[in-house]
Amino acid sequence: MSDYLNENPDVLETNQLPTREEDDELNNYLSNGIQNKNGLERRKLLLKMDRSLESQVLKDVELLDRLLLLNSITESTSDEESDENLKSLTQSTHLIQDTIDPIDAQEIYDLTAYIQDPEHPLTLGQLSIVNLEDIQVHDTGNQKEMAEVVIHITPTITHCSLATLIGLGIRVRLERALPPRFRITILLKKGTHQSENQVNKQLNDKERVTAACENEQLLNVVSNMLSTCK
Amino acid sequence: MKLELARCIKLHEDKVWSLDFSRGLLASGSTDRRTKIVSIKPEAQVTLVDELDDSTHSKSVRSVAWRPGTSILATGSFDTTVSIWTREETEEGEEYDSEEDEASREYSNSNHDNKYVMELLAIIEGHENEVKSVAWSYDGSLLATCARDKSVWIWETDEIGEEYECISVLQEHSQDVKNVVWHPSLPILASSSYDDTIRIWTDYDDDWECSAVLNGHKGTVWSSDFEKSNNNSNIRLCSGSDDCTVRVWKKLNKGEVGTSVKGTDDINDGNANEEEDEEEENDIYDNDDKWICEAILPQEHTRSIYSVSWGPNGMIASAGSDGKLVIYHEVEDKNEKNKMRWEVLCIKELIHGIYECNIVKWIDVEGELLLATGGDDGYVNLWKLI
């Protein structure tokens, strides 16, 4: 392709894209144990956010403590004690099973940012079409409740005729990857496109999306876009 | 009152888009490209009786409709075609009951226990792209179809239902036509569209013309349904939309026209400009009827409403993307005598679990009124109002 719609888009390097940093923090917290000052601070903060004794946060903190305790004990002490710990641990795990793994914005970002742009050999993340701060997720993690994702995308130019295709790619990716409890809304960021309302309407029309997914040609293009996903 | 699940049936591998019930048989169409037929007996007893040949449609079956009083079924598909099916050994003029007796006798001799074989009778081509809805007129003489190509086609057919002649192509919608529905006892057709409007079509000396445009919804109108009333001087229609509202529209009789405008203004207060547009648009038609938005029903839905059904009991049911089934009924206003208002009778949440609901229909199973719903989970659920 020689004539791009947008010849010169701004590009981010892959290592500039936002990733999950909490993982490192969590490891840190776990390895240093509960006596760690940082850990205690975090705990206090969490408790301040949610004071009730029955609160989920408190239970989670407790669970984490037990986990840490168990880890250190199995290495050094008798089986009897660890068995007991294990039993109470299983009980606590059972309590929080229903709401075990809510999906957050970073996860949605990771699912969509590596989709390839239909025009440039770059990803939607690199072109800042998908941005972490423009993703809203409402999810309790409960598999028996509906959840919602709202993504605002930013086309590289205001008359980009490929905006609908990009949106479709994101929708297909999320519909395939997310649990079925998710309702997905994809919108153009306000003021980023000439036919904002038209594109928005089309991207969120269930019937049109279903029909588009039965169109082989279109589906091939979308598959190509998704081939760069992790 | 509350809604109780009477039966759930896993019929399809993908989204159930459409349901139609007639003479004890429920037909369902799905994105899995199949059309299935189940028999429903009292106490919500359900038996799968046939599955149509699935090589007929190469894409989603979007809409199914029984021809009134017959065993003829029309199915509309995203593959641009409409197919017509009939029960194999139906003989003209025969009563349904005796017909069934004969059929069951016949089948007990062969190995098709409980089977009911539908044969392909005709395939109708004409639409440029996805067919979204098919509907038979009350007397079964006309079939209306609509598509993403923005048009509504009206087809005339004979008693056997083998030949279809297109008598009208209505192209006044500016976007996809999502749904068509006929009045239960008059030759009046309503079409709902992605252009946010509903159009009413009437037959003027064998010429089908748009007699009214119903403006008011602020998003795609997915579905509409006429009131099942014997009083033909009182024509009303309900509609459900992307804007999360259900509206009730009323056709004004000649004498009422003068007082109508005020009512319209009351409801759409603050949208004065739009109302003016509507007036202008309506004036284009010589034969125009006046319709008003009589009521916006209490808003319970939080996402798109995909389907509405006006029951023979006078109640309206709505369902959609938020998985809620809402039943509304009309009651006398406490403050004003002789004035009716709509209230929510009951709500059921998560009617297809965490999945969306695409279709809701009141069905009369030998005198017992049930609600049938179809969802993205491939299930057809039957609900009892108790």
From TrEMBL, chain A:
The protein's name: Uncharacterized protein
Organism field: Henningerozyma blattae (strain ATCC 34711 / CBS 6284 / DSM 70876 / NBRC 10599 / NRRL Y-10934 / UCD 77-7)
GO cellular component: cytosolic [4Fe-4S] assembly targeting complex
Signal peptide range in chain numbering: none
UniProt entry keywords in alphabetical sequence: Chromosome partition
Membrane-spanning ranges: none
A biological-process GO annotation: iron-sulfur cluster assembly
Database matches in PANTHER family: CYTOSOLIC IRON-SULFUR ASSEMBLY COMPONENT 2B (PTHR12377:SF0), CYTOSOLIC IRON-SULFUR ASSEMBLY COMPONENT 2B-RELATED (PTHR12377)
InterPro entries attached to this UniProt entry: FSCA_dom_sf (IPR034904), MIP18 (IPR039796)
Protein family according to the UniProt entry: Belongs to the MIP18 family.
Automatic annotation (TrEMBL), chain B:
Stretch list, region Disordered: 88-109, 260-283
Biased composition regions of type Acidic residues, renumbered to the chain: 89-103, 266-283
Localization per record: Cytoplasm; Nucleus
UniProt keyword annotations, A-Z: Cytoplasm, Nucleus, Repeat, WD repeat
Biological process terms in GO annotation: iron-sulfur cluster assembly; tRNA wobble uridine modification
Matching Pfam families: WD40
SMART domains per record: WD40
Main location class: cytoplasm
InterPro entries found in the cross-reference section: CIAO1/Cia1 (IPR028608), WD40/YVTN_repeat-like_dom_sf (IPR015943), WD40_PAC1 (IPR020472), WD40_repeat_dom_sf (IPR036322), WD40_rpt (IPR001680)
Keyword Hydrolase: no
GO terms for cellular component: cytosol; cytosolic [4Fe-4S] assembly targeting complex; nucleus
The organism's place on the tree of life at top rank: Eukaryota
WD repeats: 54-85, 124-156, 170-201, 214-250, 370-386
Record flagged with keyword Manganese: no
Coiled coil: none
Alphabetical list of PROSITE patterns matching this protein: WD_REPEATS_2 (PS50082), WD_REPEATS_REGION (PS50294)
Subunit architecture: Interacts with NAR1.
Assigned protein family: Belongs to the WD repeat CIA1 family.
Job description of the protein: Essential component of the cytosolic iron-sulfur (Fe/S) protein assembly machinery. Required for the maturation of extramitochondrial Fe/S proteins.
Name this protein carries in UniProt: Probable cytosolic iron-sulfur protein assembly protein 1
Biological source species: Henningerozyma blattae (strain ATCC 34711 / CBS 6284 / DSM 70876 / NBRC 10599 / NRRL Y-10934 / UCD 77-7) (Yeast)
